[in-house]
Each structure stands twice: as C-alpha cells, then as structure tokens.
Task: structure prediction
Amino acid sequence: MASLISFIRERNKTTPTWLKILVPLLAVGGMGVVAVLAAVVAFVVTGWLGQPVPVLGFEQTFTQPINFPHTVHAGTGQLTDASGGLRTNQNGEPLNALGLDCTFCHRTVTTQANAGVPPVAQCSFCHQAIGLDSSPDLQQLRANAGIDGSSPSPIDWRRVHRMPDHVRFVHEPHIRYLTANPSKIGNPSDEVIGNTGEAVKPALTCSTCHGDVAAMAQVKQVESLKMGQCVDCHRDNGAPTDCAACHQ
Result:
C-alpha cells in the first residue's frame, strides 16, 4: 500500500496540470452524453409505444383560444364550480348540463372521414342570446361571429387528437360498426353497459377512442392511438389488417 501511495504521488508530480483538468471534464461530459442519449431513447420508445412525454410541444391537451366546456354542453347532471359547490342561475336555481349529443356539433362523424368542427356561426346561433355579456370567452366568440360589429373570423381551435399524415382514419365505418355492436365499445358509459345488444346512438361510441369527453373540463388524449392499438382492435373485430387499410 505504501508503494502504491508513493507511485500516485510521483505521478501527480509529473502529470501536466491541463491533463489533470481534462480527465475529470471528459468523465463528466461522458456521463452527460449518456444521460442525453438515454433521455432521447426513452422519449422515442415512449412515443412509439404510447403517448410521447409531454415536452417540446407533445402535450396531450392544449389551451384553446376559447374555453369550450364539454362538461356544460355534453355533460349531464347538475353543474359544479371549482370548489365543488353547485352552480346556480341569477334566480339561485341549480344549473344542469345540457347533455347535447356529440353529433349536434360534430355533424359529419357518421357520414364522412372526419368528425367535423362546428363553424362559429353554429356556436353564435345560441350564444348571441345565451350567456353572460361579462364572459370573456363569450365576448371573443361573439367577436369572431361578428355579432358585436367586428369582421367575422373563424376560431382557430387547436387539434388534440392527430394521426400521422400517412395514416388514413375514416370515422364513418367505425361509428357504423360500433353503433351496431355496442359490446365492442371501449370505455363504455352506463347506458351502453345496460344495453341488451341493440344498436345505440353514435355519440355513445366516441368513448372508445376519445374517452369520456363529456366529463373533461379540458379535452385531452386518453388513448395512445398507436398502430398496435389499431391493429389489435381490427383483429378483435374481424376488420382488415393489411397495410392498405390504413396507410396511403
């Protein structure tokens, strides 16, 4: 041991100062490179198998230009505020959610490839008279609709659910199949669970891919919507699994 200590001391005397500084720096830098590569691999693997890590713009939800509360429009039951108390109208009466069907706004979901986003004119049809004038969101909506005298302009909604450009997803056949086969609906509501096997309305099928949107204060992606999930679903339901079925 004494000879080893003596050897180290002698080496310290002859080793250049720059080398003494460089070696630790290289060690720390090497660990940094390994850490960065590990983070990149984890991000790619997570994004391939499920939803990407919510960084660098890969969020599963977004702040929309106008806060559209699905809980109010599509939800059911009495409305509550942030503290959990019942929301009331100007007369002190409890407010109930509207329970609108998904197809009331997303009107092309049963006939076309996309579900369709309602034009601002459809929103303003109700909200030109309904809603508090003091609401910033309704003020913005009415401005976009031109009700307040502004020039009409569309609302630039941010898309939450997105497929790669090379993937072709058509809503209509999926809605048609699930309405006729309610036992195949994913994340089913109580109304679907209690169904005896007869066809259900299209809105009850949406939860399969989108989750319970009516209960979301802010819409977010809840399913991975990756190739593996789609292929598994097609296999389970006797749908085609060849490449041309989904890729173009």
The two ends are 71 Å apart (CA to CA). The chain has a mean pLDDT of 84. Residues 2-49 form one domain.
